[in-house]
Design a protein that fits this description.
eight-stranded mixed beta sheet; 28 strands; 23% helix; globular; binds zinc ion; transferase; Mlase_EEF1AKMT1/ZCCHC4; 494 residues; 12 helices; binds S-adenosyl-L-homocysteine; alpha+beta; single chain
């Protein structure tokens, strides 16, 4: 029997990522009720238990697969739940897991970094092929690689510009914010009174917070980065970066790293800390929610008695069409209307020509300004448990306060008296439909055959499973309006 693909392609997203799709096919994560046997380990820590779902019915045989990798090419771990492995196979697996770990320990990386910054500028080299800072002893090994020299302290402080963003779309897609989008957060966090930021999968935010703290002596805001991209361990000491898997709360460097995180969360009895996360969007929401609850619990342990009612403040950056899914796990979260999370766009052609990365802010890039759809809003939003009336969105960009909703909303969002809320999710004015009893996108009309609103040219009784990209029922992934032909450029194609 062919093993189901735990790689969790589109099907998995459709089943597990989009709420309430009945009759869909795909793969879902199962969290067995305790006590459950410990999950077997892959190179990325404990695996997750999956079940294949066909036409809404779960198949009986469940299997373990990698929590982090959506693609079997990246991690091909597979084991049926009821499968018994021989001692020899277990030993081989353990050896494989060890072999896959980074060659240097976290401490060794930190030591290398200290040596590196002591070198004179002319000896500070970085191998682009190996994505590695080189010490003089390493030069020989890399002499045929493309090596850049004169790595300045300024460059060292901006590793996300030095490193190539990981390209693999399924597993490790890195969508770095444009500095301008990131600056919004960097400025907002101290305004809200935060002094420590736990950055989970936000390397650029981490780096900008630290830059600000070192440039501006008044800002003493601290940041700890948790990320699966261990290339970052070359640039940070142990107390500011942990190699971490956010789909299973796994610290690759064991207890010492876990303690770094715990200490960070519990400092000052947990006062003044916020978690900011921007997970890969292909990832499953439930494992993320389970992880975040573990981080919340870790923070709670450090609370003084009187403040046990408080919640760990969180910014979860994710596409708006996951709103109901996120609120299923975090009912107190609300979605902010801030829509300007623009990612940097790496000009691949120019990078080839000049041998360096050229980053372009979406706002300034002709392709986006005059792009096919003419819309340059990003579908990415902030989900948070901080009262939204505290989060002032910039009036220069058209945001204003809605006293009825008690939150800041975008220019064209309008309060609907029937829904009693400002209902637009995408920056356009939505219209109320009295049949559906809710507001819908301006491009939709009510279809009496389907019994709900849809695009005018939808096919009635069409696909029920909905689109993997946006969750809408009226089209499939391949025809999603959010995908364009320039797939290389960004993940939404706006
Ligand atoms: N917008 C952010 C980057 C988000 S890209 C910024 O500009 O800072 C998603 C990030 O999550 C990447 O840094 C990627 O390395 C990290 N990531 C991907 N899978 C992960 C996992 N399983 N565990 C932890 N981090 C992960
Ligand atoms: Zn794995
Ligand atoms: Zn090299
Ligand atoms: Zn309405
Ligand atoms: Zn309708």
């Amino acid at each position: 029997m062919a093993a189901p693909r735990a790689g969790l392609g589109a099907g998995a997203g459709a089943a597990a990522g989009v709420p309430g799709r009945q009759g869909s096919s795909g793969v879902e994560v199962v969290f067995p009720s305790e006590p459950a046997p410990p999950a077997p380990l892959c190179p990325h820590g404990p695996t997750l238990l999956f079940v294949k779902v066909n036409q809404g019915k779960e198949e009986t045989r469940r299997f373990y697969a990698c929590s982090a990798c959506r693609d079997r090419k990246d991690c091909n771990f597979f084991q049926w739940e009821d499968e018994k492995l021989s001692g020899a196979r277990l030993a081989a697996r353990e050896a494989h897991n060890r072999k896959c770990q980074p060659p240097l320990s976290r401490t060794q990386c930190a030591e290398r970094y200290l040596k590196f910054i002591e070198l004179p500028l002319s000896q500070r080299k970085f191998c682009q092929r190996c994505q590695q800072l080189l010490l003089p002893d390493d030069w020989e090994k890399h002499h045929e690689h493309r090596v850049v020299g004169d790595i300045s302290i300024t460059q060292l402080r901006r590793p996300s510009q030095l490193l190539y963003p990981l390209e693999n779309k399924k597993t490790n897609a890195q969508y770095l914010f444009a500095d301008r989008s990131c600056q919004f957060l960097v400025d907002l966090l101290p305004t809200l009174g935060f002094t420590r930021v736990l950055c989970v999968g936000t390397p650029r935010l981490h780096e900008l917070i630290r830059l600000k703290a070192s440039d501006d002596k008044k800002s003493n805001i601290k940041s700890l980065l948790l990320d699966i991209d261990f290339r970052y361990s070359q640039f940070y000491m142990e107390d500011s970066f942990c190699h971490y898997n956010m789909f299973n709360h796994h610290f690759f460097d064991g207890k010492a790293a876990l303690e770094v995180c715990r200490t960070f969360l519990q400092e000052d009895k947990g006062e003044g800390v916020i978690m900011v996360t921007d997970p890969p969007f292909g990832g499953l929401v439930e494992p993320l929610a389970v992880t975040f609850k573990k981080l919340i619990a870790m923070w709670k342990e450090g609370q003084s008695e009187g403040s046990s009612h408080k919640e760990l403040p969180i910014f979860w950056i994710f596409p708006y069409f996951f709103e109901s899914r996120i609120r299923q796990f975090f009912p107190s979260f609300c979605m902010l209307d801030y829509q300007r999370f623009h990612r940097t766009f790496i000009c691949v052609d120019e990078a080839m020509k000049y041998g360096c990365m050229l980053e372009v802010d979406y706002d300034n890039h002709a392709l986006y300004k005059h792009g096919k759809t003419g819309r340059k809003q990003s579908p990415v939003r902030i989900f948070t448990n901080i009262p939204p009336n505290k989060i002032i969105l910039p009036s220069e960009e058209g945001y204003r306060f809605c006293p009825l909703c008690q939150r800041y909303i975008s220019l064209e969002n309008q309060h609907c008296e029937h829904c009693n809320s400002c209902t637009s999710k995408d920056g356009r004015k939505w219209n109320h439909c009295f049949f559906c009893k809710k507001c819908v996108k301006p491009s939709w009309i009510h279809c009496s055959i389907c019994g709900h609103c849809a695009l005018p040219d939808h096919s009635c009784g069409g696909p029920k499973d909905g689109c993997f990209i946006c969750g809408e029922l009226d089209h499939k992934r391949s025809t999603c309006p959010k995908i364009t032909t320039s797939k290389k450029v960004n993940r939404w194609g706006e």
